Queue: 4 jobs
Job 1
Amino acid sequence: MTEAGYVHRLHAGAADKPILLVLHGTGGDENQFFEFGRRLLPEATVLSPRGDVSEHGAARFFRRTGEGVYDMADLSRATEKMAAYVRAFADEHQASQILGLGFSNGANILANVLIEKGIFDAAVLMHPLIPFQPEAQATLAGRKILVTAGQRDPIAPVPLTEALSEHLKDRGADVRTVWHPGGHEIAPLEINAVRDFFSGY
């Protein structure tokens, strides 16, 4: 059995079905999206790790030095660790595809793994924040990405959400962005968009 250093919940699905990685926001844990993931894709392997960084007791996937200010060295560490973790479980469970869903801090590490490693076939980034210009790397052609965001989100401002979407599109990904009129909370229309996005898997 794969063990890569995260406390996690795992539902082993069928060998010819996708693996779905679900990633919580700051202060959440492995329970936040686990059952949601199981309802989305009942036959898939669902993997939900708990962030291994504590910020005043709140679990995160990488360190930051302030709101929206990332510890880039720790983000690099976390990206390498998460990519190896997902690959190992996908291989072990003979997954047909690698899918991801993350909210806030979970969306940020998911986005950076996608940007640097490109290992996800499809991903949902809910209220992501990449507060730097990523380097242009290999193509993301063939990847499907859903970005959901709030038009008044003070944590993930609209211009940075749009910049991330454009970066992913410029590298060839098929990107759809869904907005709701509120802030950093998850709105029902986002849930509906996520269900529609994963309905073909």
Job 2
Amino acid sequence: MEAQKQGNPAVVGLAGFGLTTLVLQFHNVGWMGVGPVIWLGLIFGGLAQMIAGLQEKGTGNNFGYCAFTAYGAFWIALAMLLIGNQFNIYVSSKTDIGWFLVAWTAFTAILWIGSMRIHSALAITFTLLLAGFVLLDLAHFGYPQLTVVAGYELMVCALSAWYIMAHLIFADVFGRDVLPVGSPWIKA
């Protein structure tokens, strides 16, 4: 009996991460308000990405399990933080948010190292994500103009995540590798 083909949860995780990151950066560069960021952060970047991460557990992919589940939790926490500030519940100062981002920067640094063992496209995505977090850290601790720089830089990060998503989807539907992702930066 032939095993039933399973979907790859990474395509949903990458879609949610990329789309929510992209829309947050539209806000950070001043193109739109924060409302859509909150709803995407709760549903697509948060819930959908977290479900994808939990599904990665079943595939035995610890990197995907950790990354999608954790960044799903990041989006939910960020959305709740913004809601808390809006409704004066557990208000977080700019410094509080800065330390929140510093912790996520350290977490991202660990995954950045792991990404270099997978393939170039993922290493590029995590390099851009780490750089974006560092820029946002600096923006929250005295250099607010860097929020816009981080916004444009993280738009490229979001599109890089979508490139990997497209690589996975196209490889499945075309039955061959259409979009190359490159070799790992760290071998053996």
Job 3
Amino acid sequence: MSSKLLFDNIALSRTITRICHEILEKNKSINNLVLAGIKTRGYFLALRIAKKIEEIEEIKVDVVEVDITNYRDDIQKSNNSSFKINYNLENKDIILIDDVMYTGRTVRAAMDCILDFYRPSRIMLAVLVDRGHRELPIRADFVGKNIPTSINEKIKVNLTEVDDEDCVLIINS
């Protein structure tokens, strides 16, 4: 197994800044905007994007964490019906945020999770890396970088909040 560095911490920071500017350009008013980070790294990226937007616009953007565990289609569903996002997303403009987009199944699960409880006015999608190989007709509105991969390659996003370093690697298995 070998790996190659795609982004170092500086390139990662620049990419997040660019995504923030694209979000601001596409959303003239961000007063109704909520960032929904898909657990785990998507949530931390959402926090970084919210902080950067606040630095740029001096407006605080709310962030929620979306745990898709009970909505994944590759594991047995739990009978735990008490799961709920603890934020009212009714009529909000939501930007789902994840680190890597692959088949689209994670994004579908996150949308199912939100739509089970709320009717937002719209949902957009931001991803740090789009590696292709989609299995569902889902595309991101904001993409940090498109990195077409082979099926044997994997994209690994490391964030200091989880992994003690910021970088993006491509791993050949």
Job 4
Amino acid sequence: MLDLIFENPSLLLMMEHFDMNIVVRNKTVEQICNENQINQQVFINVANLYNGFNIANTKDIDRSDTESIILFLKNSHRYYLDEKIPEIHDCINGLYAKNNIPEIRLVGRFFDEYSQEVKEHLNYEDVVAFPYFSALANNREHYDSEDKKFSAEEYREHHTDIETKLGELKNLLLKHIPLKQDGSLRRKLLTSLFELEYDLTIHSVIEESILIPLIKKIEKQKKIG
């Protein structure tokens, strides 16, 4: 595992999302997965995404893996809300403090609206979708949530790619806003936007390619949904 981290340090963030200790010593991926009770296939699939590859195989992922997938997604929510979004707000405010121009004010308004949309999206997952998925996978009775019609298909239809709008903001900063100073702050802002977009894209692929198919399979077994 140590060699893999040296090759791609973003795997540290992935391990953080899985609640794993990043002090890996000389342990193998298999040993780390066993210690953390995470299906090695789930771990490898997600690591492939962080390494720029597609998900290779999901046939060995079953309902017992639902909680670890949800744990990963919930922890990624905290990363967006507690770390990346405040970091981006700070960069925009810093630029505005030294460049009091309408264009920076426009960037601030755009990101305020975007971050509110992200918060609503993540709250929907935390409050409605994930409790349903968890209860369903663990055979608890109240897996229908307050809306009795809720299902993996409804979640898929509601699901939106919140990462795509960040492209508009990056274009705005790279093409249309000239600043004579604070180049380093603009670089930090763009770097944070790229990092947020990168992780949100992986987040969406995990939901679309692993979680939703898994929940649909469970619903089919239970003849619901």
